[in-house]
Amino acid sequence: MGNPSKTIGYFAMVALLALLFGGFISLYHCFFTSFSSQLLLSRNERIYHQQSIMTYRDVLGTALSKASMGNNKTLIIAVVNKAYVEQDVKGDPTTMFDLFLNSFWLGEGTRSLVDNILIVAVDQTAYDRCQFLKLNCYKLETDGVDFGGEKLYMSQDFINMMWTRTFFLLEILKRGYNFIFTDTDVMWLRNPFEKLSNDETEDFQISTDEYFGDPWSEKNRVNTGFFFVRSNNKTISLFETWYGMKDNFTEKKEQDVLEDLIKGGIFRDLGIKARFLDTLYFSGFCQDSKDFRAVTTVHANCCRSITAKVADLKKTLRDWKRFRRLGVNSTVNVYWNTHEWCLESWDNDLI
């Protein structure tokens, strides 16, 4: 046998090395496991963050898809704020928004169209009201700008809100959607899609304050409270040019700027085929339809305040119900009530 002391020393050395190696393995395992867990957690956090951003960005896309008609990417868009949806508990509880929705109920062939309206709310009250009514709703963020109260016609807030709307509609076109845009002071008495042209070469069909008999004449006075637009490169360029003029005409509303562009030949320059809608079908307070059997929409244009619009639109719906009660073969002539409140709104700030 060899030296016993050397043998003991050898085994002690082996044991020490084994202990050190085992400790190293344990430390490595703990470190690697912790590092892997942190790496996995960090990766999962990044994925969650990316998904959150994508979800936020796609809220509008989801809303548009839900409201569109089948696979043809066509829908109806209406913009509302607090002043149009909030009921006056001390006075008349009927709101402009109530009348707008009621017209779909009272109209001919219009009830199902409610499913295809995207209500764009520019403040929380309007969004809450929309959600309460279980409609298709989208909250338009306006970077801290307060669009909640009534924006009196041609006030600076009114002009700013109209331009915000124009920019939003440009975004819809860029996403490939065709749409009817409608103000909520437009009463839908019949299905407009049955009166609008189905010719896909017609890019833009817009209502008029005054219609002079020719659907192609640029002398017709346009109204941007109701129009149908097809999404294509030409209409996207139109809306980009239109919105791009915002800072050049700070005291003009977007409708006036569009009229200037039309007079300047923008439809011709962009190759846009535009139809101006006959007030026989798409009427308003500026120029009433002369035929109850043909009228499709009634717009409370040529009116300054919400109070006046609500009062006169109530009379409009009463006139419509009176007409509907007549028999098909009735020869009784039905006439619209005069729009007294709206006429007085230009001279009376309290209306």
Topology:
Blueprint: H1 4-57, H2 59-67, E1 74-80, H3 82-85, H4 96-106, E2 117-121, H5 124-132, E3 136-139, H6 156-174, E4 178-182, E5 186-188, E6 204-210, E7 221-229, H7 233-244, H8 254-263, H9 266-270, E8 274-276, E9 282-284, E10 297-299, H10 306-324, H11 340-345
Parallel strand pairs: 1-2, 1-4, 2-3, 6-8, 9-10
Antiparallel strand pairs: 4-7, 5-10, 6-7
Keywords: Membrane, Transferase, Transmembrane, Transmembrane helix
Protein name: Nucleotide-diphospho-sugar transferase family protein
Domain Nucleotide-diphospho-sugar transferase: 113-313
Q: Can you describe what's shown?
A:
The chain is of the alpha/beta class and 351 residues long. It folds into 2 domains: 1-57; 72-345, Spore Coat Polysaccharide Biosynthesis Protein SpsA, Chain A (Alpha-Beta Complex). Helices cover 45% and strands 14% of the residues. It has 11 helices and 10 strands. The protein has helices at 4-57, 59-67, 82-85, 96-106, 124-132, 156-174, 233-244, 254-263, 266-270, 306-324, 340-345, and strands spanning 74-80, 117-121, 136-139, 178-182, 186-188, 204-210, 221-229, 274-276, 282-284, 297-299. The chain has a 7-stranded mixed beta sheet. Helix 5 (124-132) links the parallel strand 2 (117-121) and strand 3 (136-139). Helix 4 (96-106) runs parallel beside helix 10 (306-324). The termini are far apart. 34% of the residues are buried. The chain crosses the membrane at residues 7-28. GO terms for molecular function: transferase activity. This is Nucleotide-diphospho-sugar transferase family protein. Residues 113-313 form the Nucleotide-diphospho-sugar transferase domain. InterPro entries: At1g28695/At4g15970-like, Nucl-diP-sugar_transferase.
